[in-house]
Amino acid sequence: MSSQRRFPAEWEPQAALLVAWPHETTDWRDTLTAIEPVYVDFVAAVAAVQPVWILCQDAVHLIHVSDRLEQAGVDANNIKPIICSFNDTWIRDYGPITIIDADTPRLLDFRFNGWGGKFEAGLDDTVNARLAGTCQFGGAVPVALPQILEGGSLETDGAGTLLTTSGCLLGASRNAGMDRAAWEALFAEQLGCDRTLWLEHGYLAGDDTDGHIDTLARFADPETIVYAGCDNPDDPNHNSLLSMAAELQALCRRDGKPYRLITLPAPAPQLVDGAPVPASYANFVIINERVLVPTYNDPADEHALEQLQKAFPERDIIGIDARAMVRQGGVLHCASMQIPQVVTTDKTS
């Protein structure tokens, strides 16, 4: 492991937030009128404090997106539309994972196969290389790696500790034959993380990702973990989340002390055609000055916002109605990838 290599935490300064705007050839094609207002609200909340880079399918789509944001009064100075075709909007899982190596950004470009071959992902798998080809990353060139790994499966404290789930990483549909030891060696070598905490439990019904950590448990600082709870025994997620809570309570920080744990409530089950989708308040996004939180027009929304204010006392906590977004299986964190501030400095690789 390089002693100078570090996987920065999401709460560290950001140059931009990267999103991919829904279009007619994504799974949003039949619900564009419902989902676009969510993206307008989401982008507006980000653009108020930092730049947003928006992937657009083509020139016509770029004009459409720009017009929608202008009509909503979004600050155009913080909007950077980029033509770069893609299959799916969940850019957390195929966007670049930024590592800082001796103060220089190192963009890791892992393979993406549509969550174990569940969906077409040929365009998504090449987005990072195409963005780098047009110098979108300030000259930093993505490092192509052969392993299949999704950004939503990783949580870091920025100080060498990684939190993840065995259900996702050890499944055969992504990297058959890779065991815990192989993953931990990879994390140490490529991410500079010498300590991996594995969760065996925690699953949300309807989740296509096989248990991404970013819908379950998140670092708020090196000593605090915020996690999805559920106190309703009739909720289909209750037993799994209860077991996960017990695991989190048993985890220790690097100094041997227990983590400070903050529980998020569970919204009422969200259903699409009678089937559950993975609604979670844990899929929040940390940006400069703010934390953006998915809400569901649910009585639990207010409590979730209050709990996250405890976790991030120095940031504004802002709810974004994500009911239309969760219908496709993800919300705000899934739909975005932070670009750390170091990417746009003069120290590029």
From TrEMBL:
It comes from the Bacteria. GO terms for biological process: putrescine biosynthetic process. Pfam families: PAD_porph. SUPFAM superfamilies: Pentein (SSF55909). Keywords: Hydrolase. One of its GO terms (molecular function) is agmatine deiminase activity. It comes from Methylohalomonas lacus. The keyword Chloroplast does not apply. This is Agmatine/peptidylarginine deiminase.
